[in-house]
Design goal:
Number of helices: 5
Structural class: mainly alpha
Subcellular location: Endoplasmic reticulum membrane; Microsome membrane; Mitochondrion
Order of helices and strands: HHHHEEEEH
Radius of gyration: 22 Å
Distance between the termini: 51 Å
Helix content: 40-55%
Number of domains: 2
Strand order of the largest sheet: 1-4
Membrane topology: Peripheral membrane protein
Number of strands: 4
Largest sheet: 2 strands, antiparallel
Main location: endoplasmic reticulum
Keywords: Endoplasmic reticulum, Fatty acid metabolism, Heme, Iron, Lipid metabolism, Membrane, Metal-binding, Microsome, Mitochondrion, Monooxygenase, NADP, Oxidoreductase
Pfam families: p450
Shape: flat
Length: 151
């Protein structure tokens, strides 16, 4: 049901680009690449948000004093007569801290994105040769009492 004159969404746009490259020797937009891109967008956007909200609500049920303080900050900054705006985030440091603490506590993203060593590196007596792919594990820090003495 793709209609090139009226793309409905991001996926339609990717499919249209794939069609443009139909006869290319090395197409970038293939069905496999599009599937991975759509999955990445889903997991990076929707899954992260829904998981944070789901666990956040459960954690706030356990700590009603935190929920009360959040509610007070939201009422003070936004009030009852309008919807939240992106600019409000700057005026709600407690909300920002609580969201980050929830994500730390639930270990939302246990591994960082892959990185590549740009030069030979020595780390804790280990030699990491240039070009080595390194995937840092974040969870080793998330529960470190030296980094988070008062979670």
């Amino acid at each position: 049901s793709l209609e090139p004159s009226c793309p409905r969404d991001f996926t339609d746009t990717l499919l249209m680009e794939m069609e443009k490259e139909k006869y290319s020797a090395e197409p970038i937009y293939t069905l496999d690449n599009i599937a991975v891109t759509v999955a990445d967008m889903f997991f990076a956007g929707t899954e992260t948000t829904s998981t944070t909200l789901r666990y956040g609500l459960l954690i706030l049920m356990k700590y009603p004093e935190v929920e009360e303080k959040l509610h007070e900050e939201i009422d003070r900054v936004i009030g009852p007569n309008r919807i939240p705006a992106i600019k409000d985030r700057l005026d709600m440091p407690y909300l920002d801290a609580v969201v980050h603490e929830i994500q730390r506590f639930i270990d939302l993203i246990p591994s960082n994105l892959p990185h590549e060593a740009t030069r030979d590196t020595v780390f804790r007596d280990y030699i990491i040769p240039k070009g080595t792919v390194v995937i840092p594990t974040l969870d080793s820090v998330l529960y470190d009492s030296q980094e988070f003495p008062e979670p």
